[in-house]
Design goal:
The complex is a heterotrimer of chains A (about 300), B (about 325) and C (about 325).
Chain A lengths: L3 H7 L6 H14 L1 H23 L34 H36 L4 H14 L3 H11 L4 H27 L3 H8 L4 H9 L4 H24 L11 H9 L7 H29 L5
Helix pairs in contact in A: 2-12, 3-4, 3-12, 4-5, 4-7, 4-10, 4-12, 5-7, 6-7, 7-10, 8-9, 10-11, 10-12, 11-12
Chain B lengths: L1 H27 L5 H6 L5 H10 L6 H13 L13 H36 L4 H15 L2 H15 L23 H7 L3 H37 L3 H8 L4 H39 L4 H10 L3 H29 L1 H5 L1
Helix pairs in contact in B: 1-13, 5-6, 5-9, 5-11, 6-9, 7-9, 7-11, 8-9, 9-11, 10-11, 11-12, 11-13, 12-13
Chain C lengths: L7 E12 L2 E13 L4 E5 L6 H9 L6 E10 L2 E2 L5 H11 E4 L3 H4 L6 H13 L5 H14 L5 H5 L8 H13 L5 E5 L7 H18 L2 E5 L3 H7 L2 E6 L2 E7 H6 L4 H8 L48 E4 L2 E3 L2 H6 L5
Parallel strand pairs in C: 3-8, 3-9, 6-7, 7-8
Antiparallel strand pairs in C: 1-2, 1-4, 4-5, 9-10, 10-12, 11-12
Classes of the chains: A mainly alpha (about 300), B mainly alpha (about 325), C alpha/beta (about 325).
Amino acid sequence: MTSPSLMAHKTGPTVQRRDVLRRAWYNFSRNRLSVVGLVIVLLVVLLAVIGPYIAPYPGHAKAFVDFRNSNQRPSVRHWFGTDYIGRDILSRILFALRSALLMGVLVLAIAVPVGVVSGVVAGYLRGSLAEMVIMRVTDIFLAIPAMVLALAIASVLAPNLRNAMLAVTVMWWPWYTRLVYGLASSLRNEYFVRAAELTGASAGHIMFREILPNCLAPIMTKITLDMAWVIMIGASLSFVGLGEQPPIPSLGNMVSDGAKYMPDQWWMTVFPAIAIMLIVLPFNLLGDGIRDLFAMGEER
Amino acid sequence: MLSYLGKRLVGAVFVLAGLSVVIFLIARVVPGDPVRMALGPQAPQAVVEDLRKQLHLDKPLHVQYYYWVSGAVRGDFGISLMTNRPVTADLKEYLPATLELVLFASILHGLFGLILGIVAAAYSDSWLDNFVRVFAYIGVTTPGFVFAVLFMLIFGYWWHLLPVIGRIGYGVTVPPTITGMMTVDSLLTGNLPAFADALKHLILPSVALSMGAMSQEARITRSSMVENLNKDYIYMSVAQGIPRRIIMRKYLLKPSLIPTVTVFGLGCASTMAGAFLVELIFNWPGFARYGITGMLMKDLNVISATVLVVALCFVVVNIIVDLVVAYLDPRIRLQ
Amino acid sequence: MATAEPLLDVRDLRVSFRVFRGTLSVLDGVTLAVRPGERVGLIGETGCGKTTTLRAIMRILPREARVGGGQVLFAGRDVLSMNAGDLSAFRRKGASLVFQDPTAALNPVFTVGQLLDEVIKYSQGRAMPAKERRAVAAAALRDVALPDPARILNSYPFQLSGGMRQRVCIAMAIGVNRELILADEPGTSLDVTIQDQILRLISDLVAKRNVAVVLVTHSLGVVRETTDRVYVMYAGSIVESAPVKELFRAPLHPYTVALLECIPKLSGERISQGIPGSMPDYLHPPRGCRYQPRCPRAEEGCAAGRPPMREVAPGHSVACYRVAAQGGEDR
């Protein structure tokens, strides 16, 4: 399979950059859902950044008790209602967005480079000891559902957001190793790699200057889709209490707290649940758009 | 085919051995003293030391690993500090309930994921396709525990359609334990009211568990069918005058199913992982709830046994998936 | 003057593709006819629309293609407006296509026997029992000179060599009786000696069975030896047609002249040594005659409008203002 990005990479950087960008946008925007995804992603990020400043009751994201206002239905004063000790659900959701997104960003910021580097190395140095070790370790981690091992790791550490991130990161890099390994081991036989070898380029140059740029399209797609996955797993960890600890709000712990008051105080559960769906959805839409973008042939 | 299976089995043993090291290490990096934590701060030092010795925690790391792994191979995972019983006995009791749930959920997502994907591909770009697309997007973007909580609220509390707690209702004669799976046992003993009740209890948790995998399978089935529809070998069949329904059912479906089977394997994994939360929500007395409770109580023997059992399940699932893929794809089978 | 009613009569066929940059008018009025039993060659550079023409005739164009006009008459009936049942009958008994790339054209997860059996089942009628179908399949493989049919019937395509796959494809197209075979550069992906064998195999088979054939190929030698009449295609339309001997002796269209001059090499895009310039852009095709920008004999008038096909000698037509103006005295 020749990767479309290969052509993009080999085209002179300045010659047709505008045309490439225009075509990229055309391909991307043909799928209206992915444009919607992009818009919502930007909105969610914006909300996470300014959330604490626009939250109607910023003080409610901490240890705060106001029993007179507890268990309030959604109203003009409290759009999403209040919880069992009188905290404004909307304000807490706005604060929780931050840690949810932060989880995705930080986990991937560590897992992606580790996975990508080990994947390129294993893929380019096929048959070497390095490949053997890297890929066998990867097999071991991929043999078990990521969430189960992440739960186990997080549970033996102190329960907090940092350790939850650590646990998920440990489980996440092998997926990138396997992805990039597959790409790199097919690219290493391409002519431009052979040519670089003949001119005496170092292994490092070939791996990171020749092979890696041509793996970027699938990596980008996976990163976008994985933002959704990591946020979901983060929410799952905090749902069982292995993430952000009360009184700090997280979407997962809000759902689990609220679930105790179902069905009468349904808003305590429903709104955080919808918030999870709403931040996960646009990353999926966007990821599909990016995939289509790279999957399109030159002429389509 | 046999040598292919052999290779898979050898790989599986290797993976399990590697995992046992990983699991062992996880259980030993726990900060603080697990024995002290289990016994509480009031326990006298001598008792703590005794238990430590009993658990071989006073030995060097590799000796501890040897004790642990040789026990695990014999099916002995030690004593659960949470239940004060051998972990193996607990597993025997709780595992069937989880297997029942996960198997039922996997049948659901495999079957309906496939049907939805085929329908979407057969009527691609129609309203049906769009419906499946929206459904699948909701499915992949909602964690299982969110479905569980919402289903519980809507179908359990608001509409009173289905029970939301446990495996069987009060007042129903519980079938004797044969396989440990309520639905199967009640059928085996011909206890139809118990079967109906157990099935009702099974529906909400299993549907909540299966939604994500179902959506992924529908999506991959649709996209691989639509992609293959543009392949020359399909045009070749069309140009030969073979009826469309036969092309769709046979010549398009078989090659398109290969990626679906792989995704089905991943779907089973995510279903099992989801059970750790969903069982907690529906109070399903299964192995996953036992495992997550053990995790939350830092019960190390339970944690390592749980992870190892899940890994064992997935090694088996992956071998089955590989065999089905090999059956569908002669290029793999005959290499 | 046609000696018999044409079996296949393609009239002014127009096909366009919608792509990122706009609409490509790939077939711009293709007109060609094939009489029963006639062997017709279709030649032209890569990308001139030969494959699209054949696929449009079979009605197996990809989604992004649109038929913009014209007719494909097979035995007097328009294939383009047939209902599903008639279309299926046309494909089963009327015409069949030998694909260019045999590897892509064979379903990878079925055995040759399964693939061939399905074709036989639907082209012979359902009455034939399985055992008999298998005998027919084995015979079809023997006809395309494949040794050990029993083994090949049980093989998957990936277990066969490229040449064997191509023969299997031919067996699927010719093994059952049809009136017209459309062969799309058979063997192009194979090495030259095997390609030659394949082309000869096809011409032998069609001669033996008295089947009409449209042979698309880059091998002008094969065209010269095995066909009765030749159509020359350039950028989406036919520019010249003539009996094979006359075409090779006295080509009239400047493009044909140039094409015949580079006989030793005629494949791929590296044609520029032979004919200066390259195929026009289908998005913005040149005005008037599409060959005019590359044509050594072009005049101002050539860009004014499309030159129509004119019969300049019995059975010899050409679409060129310059030739039409000078008539036969050109040579």
